[in-house]
Amino acid sequence: MWRSLASNMLTFLIVALFLLAGIILWGQRLYQSEGPLAEAVCVRVERGTTMSRLSRELEAQGAVSNGAILRIGADYTDKAGQLKAGSYLVAPGASMEEIVDAVTRGGASTCGTEIVYRIGVTRMTAEVRELDPASNTFASRARFDPATEETPDIYTRMAAESDTRFRIALAEGVTSWQVVEGLKAVEVLAGEVEDVPAEGTLAPESYEVSRGTPRTDLLADMQALQLLRVKAAWEGRADDVAVASPEELLILASIIEKETGLPEERGQVASVFSNRLRRGMRLQTDPTVIYGITEGRGVLGRGLRQSELRKATAWNTYVILGLPPTPIANPGEASLEAAANPDSTAYIFFVADGTGGHAFAETLEEHNRNVAKWRQIEDERNNN
Asked: How far is CA 193 from CA 169, 185, 187, 197, 198, in A?
């Protein structure tokens, strides 16, 4: 009897050990696997918060599927007592392990307040954005032009906070000179920029930076990203693309970027310039003339004169054949793609249509009618 009982107990213990091992493996996989978040959320850790309380809040926010597993994992890795106060951005799909690592690592927090420096084609702005706990989205608290407007108190206060995030956002179509001048106005960055990067080589994108990031390092990141984008566009180009190299692709993309602000028009605009290049026609595009005047140093601020359209410069495509020698701006990814894969059309002309877009034409006769319509619209606007 005792032998039978001992045998049963041993069997029970073995089964229990297997079950325990299975539970541990399941918990470990759950702790390290992708989390349930579909959209990023901001998690606030107040001073004195415990891992037990935080795990319940994370589970309530849908950031973790099982708060108990998070607590056990934090205890097992000796991180349960290492919480750092602050606000932390939990990325979509973040695992419990990644969340615990973020809230115990220390250093600057990753959400709550952010300052976004937007370097645009006509101006630069600094915007203070603060997280609204009710909607868990960022709301603008102040926006100003650092070059011409007085600095708001909220900006000064938030820029000094240790948990404020900083981002630099480049608009499509900015020139390299505009980027460098904009970065000079971002006081949280460090270091001098001796040379303006080659036109077109900086990728329009939003870049997160930290206090003290060297300006040259940020410019290097922008160049590296643009190089990757140009390479990808060139490798995916159409068989009959009208340009002969990645460098020419970049130049064409910069012209497309400056000619239209409507995403749906990029392919058509690209087709016009591609058709003109194939036919040996001059591109005759105003932004290249403007670049020949300003060389990318700011905006012209007025209309082009007839004498300027006739004046020979390296970039005046009313005078030169083919592409100008350099890009005329930093094009975005969509314009690079349009240059590599333009729409298949027979268009060789386009003109503004009064709606913010353009009217396209295959023949000079049709184009002249479109031009007449546009001039009528201009006259009506000037007389009102």
From this structure: 18, 12, 14, 9, 13
Closest by alpha carbon to 275, among 350, 178, 180, 356?
350
Dihedral angle of Cα 145, 147, 152, 156, to the nearest 10 degrees: 120
pLDDT digits (tens, 9 = 90+) for 308-343: 899 989 999 999 999 999 999 999 999 999 999 999
- At 27 the pLDDT is 63
Give the pLDDT score at 274: 97
How much of the chain, in percent, has pLDDT values that exceed 70? 89
Q: Determine the Cα–Cα distance for residues 106 and 77; give it in Å rounded to an integer.
A: 16
Question: Which CATH class name applies to 31-105?
Answer: alpha beta
Which residue ranges make up each domain of the chain?
Answer: 31-105, 113-230, 240-383
Question: pTM of whole model > 0.90?
Answer: no
- The answer to whether the CB of 370 falls within 8 A of the CB of 361 is yes
| Position 191 confidence tier, pLDDT thresholds 50, 70, 90 | very high
Cβ-defined contacts of 28-31 (< 8 Å, 24+): 28/73, 30/65, 30/66, 30/69, 30/96, 31/69, 31/70, 31/72, 31/73, 31/95, 31/96, 31/97
